[in-house]
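Hi support team,

I've been running sequence recovery on a batch of backbones for a student project. Most finish fine, but this one hangs at about 90% for roughly twenty minutes before it completes. I'm not sure whether the input is malformed or the queue is just slow. I've pasted the structure tokens below so you can try to reproduce it. Let me know if you need the job ID as well.

Thanks,
M.K.
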């Protein structure tokens, strides 16, 4: 039986909650990461300098979600109750029991905190345990070492590099480093992530 296509859902863990992304999150999101070049460096396009510019990015993502390209989530830091970033399910192929977690960013204050681990624990758990996925992939720019290290800490296996995969906003070419986690690897990875939290 094939996996189930993900729908917008709210998932709650001890440190974060992920909930369907909406324009209501815009103010918090801009406060968390608006105008920070380092936060947006790997996201494609310049850092949004105003709330309106971030709103344009959010609106474009929600339009892509309506076309079935993404299932976007706001990441809520439970201690503050504020949205501190967003993430998505993307490249969804339920018949092949796979999806990708990507287009993720968090405000710099939440880097190397429980936010990323907690978010990935919720999204991976939902993908494997409730949607029936057999593979979850993640990818990042080959120059984004911080992201590669964070993905490896999740227990995902580095699979390889797609060379000259995507043009960056500055016209240079990005190589994309691919990682994946398979359903039979999930129980061990889950135990490690829960221990880290």
């Amino acid at each position: 039986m094939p996996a189930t296509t993900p729908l917008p859902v709210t998932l709650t863990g001890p440190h974060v909650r992920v909930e369907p992304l909406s324009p209501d999150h815009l103010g918090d999101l801009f406060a968390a990461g608006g105008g920070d070049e380092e936060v947006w460096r790997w996201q494609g396009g310049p850092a949004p300098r105003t709330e309106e510019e971030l709103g344009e990015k959010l609106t474009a993502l929600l339009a892509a979600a309506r076309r079935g390209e993404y299932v976007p989530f706001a990441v809520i830091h439970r201690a503050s109750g504020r949205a501190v970033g967003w993430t998505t399910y993307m490249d969804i192929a339920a018949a092949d029991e796979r999806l990708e977690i990507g287009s993720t960013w968090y405000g710099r204050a939440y880097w190397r905190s429980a936010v990323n681990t907690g978010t990935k624990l919720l999204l991976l758990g939902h993908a494997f345990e409730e949607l029936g996925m057999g593979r979850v992939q993640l990818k990042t720019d080959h120059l984004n070492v911080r992201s590669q290290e964070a993905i490896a800490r999740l227990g995902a296996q580095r699979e390889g590099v797609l060379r000259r995969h995507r043009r960056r906003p500055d016209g240079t070419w990005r190589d994309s480093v691919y990682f994946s986690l398979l359903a039979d690897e999930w129980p061990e990875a889950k135990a490690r992530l829960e221990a880290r939290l």
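--
Follow-up from support: It reproduced on our side and the slowdown came from queue contention, not your input. The CA atoms of residues 2 and 96 lie 7 Å apart. No action needed from you.
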